Amino acid sequence: MLPKATRTHGYQQVASILEAEIVSGRLKIGELLPIEAELAEALGVNRSTLREGLRALESDGLVRRVAAKRLQVVAPDPARVALTNARALGLRGASFRDLWEVQMQLEHFAAHQAAERASDEQIAAIRASVEELIPSLDDDQAVVRHDIAFHSLVSHAAGNAALELATAPIGLLLFSATQHLYQAVPAARHRLLAAHRAISDAIANRDAGLASDWMRRHIADFRRGYEIAGFDIHANIELSYSSPFGPSSG
Amino acid sequence: MLPKATRTHGYQQVASILEAEIVSGRLKIGELLPIEAELAEALGVNRSTLREGLRALESDGLVRRVAAKRLQVVAPDPARVALTNARALGLRGASFRDLWEVQMQLEHFAAHQAAERASDEQIAAIRASVEELIPSLDDDQAVVRHDIAFHSLVSHAAGNAALELATAPIGLLLFSATQHLYQAVPAARHRLLAAHRAISDAIANRDAGLASDWMRRHIADFRRGYEIAGFDIHANIELSYSSPFGPSSG
DNA sequence: GTTGTCATATTGTCGGACAATGATAGTCTC
DNA sequence: GAGACTATCATTGTCCGACAATATGACAAC
């Protein structure tokens, strides 16, 4: 019974080593990596092998190509992470009920914290988001986009990275699953607008309790709409696919 | 303002295409991918380029090497995803307070749901986890490992994939941050054992309210211990590093 | 000082090669 | 005929060398 020699390949070691360097802080965020030829020599592997390892890091969002073709160490972009998580949830067969339950636990808290902590710019962004919805209230796609953006802004305004990371993929999945809800339930879009406006106002007025209450009702109402539209609460939710590779401009 | 010509490279297209195939379900979970030579030819790229794309997919947890050296489509392993998220949270500077706040919202709910939905096997596993802790209560590392495992088991028993995904990275970070807490606060380990036992019993008795209450107190107590130990609630939490590449036996 | 041109550096991609190793078929023994 | 053993094959992981495309920086022209 030898130690089972977990066959760990070169490219895995490359990724593992660089990842450890980044997580441990020896490679700092923003730092530029050496050119591939140097890195390969330093790690004692061929450039091809090195590149395979780099692809893994890039996919994890730990490095990215930057202007001068060089690789830069970066902190994972929340939007990317959210997309990855949403995909994972979709593939693991999360149901509307699963997602909604978690959302019910988190969103009202996000609204509460946003009311207490949001900066003036963040409040302005939230208000602007609501205002922008009004002219395109008839466009289902636009409503969904706004819905995702609004809740994302509120979570962000709560000033809690963990909260933001937890809510983002759920919002992404849940709201994109409502693309065809607004035809079945015409009143939904107006109720959504009213709720978002109320939440927005409460946050702007620093009324955490009111913001929290409105959000709670809003999420509860969201589920009712989903059920009224005749969708199955227990069916798996699939991520309706939107362009996976943004320029990642964060 | 021209369309910004997003230079998308070959290996990115490879990853993107295969990812879309998997997410859309055209490539089903468990299916084996063709050999690299065939895939490369089918996609019109060199094997080197293909492999770089595959590394990205592998890193995303969408495929893995399986027995016959072949690549198999898999649903992302929750443990892997949790580790990725924990790393992202650490690098984005999440504080103990951030993590704790979210945990406070989710863990009591997890206990509640576990009491209602856990299978007999899951209840047995939770009980066993608590029992196993007793003989090694003096070993700080073992306490931390148990702590992570226990909360993970409870979340899993709640039968909600989204809840599990949201809580796992937070537990990973929070509990691994307590490695040096038990020396500063000797009573902590006994309070932890008592709480876990009470939660375990409540779940076994299907008493959702009691399980939820105990968990709430347990998490609140956890924070008190952290503060009493003199740790800074607002300091960034770093992921103490543990072997990133498990055999991923899930 | 701005613009255009050139040399240089670096990446992305290709093709080929080979050792290691797991899978497979075929052979031998009973 | 069943099972153990062996030789063959297929496939991956890794290396090497090469080249076009392109961004950078230096330099010349205006």
Largest β-sheet summary of chain A: 2 strands, antiparallel
- Shape type of chain A: elongated
Q: Fraction of residues of chain A in helices? A: 55-70%
Number of DSSP helices of chain A?
Answer: 11
Which topology of the largest domain in chain A does CATH recognise?
A: Four Helix Bundle (Hemerythrin (Met), subunit A)
Order of helices and strands of chain A: HHHEEHHHHHHHH
Number of domains of chain A: 2
Quote the beta fraction of chain A: under 5%
User: Quick one: which chains have the greatest interface?
Assistant: A-B, 61 and 62 residues
Q: What is the top-level CATH class of the largest domain in chain A?
A: Mainly Alpha
* Rounded radius of gyration of chain A (Å): 22 Å
The strands making up the biggest β-sheet of chain A line up spatially as 1-2
What is the H level of CATH, i.e. the homologous superfamily of the largest domain in chain A?
Answer: GntR ligand-binding domain-like
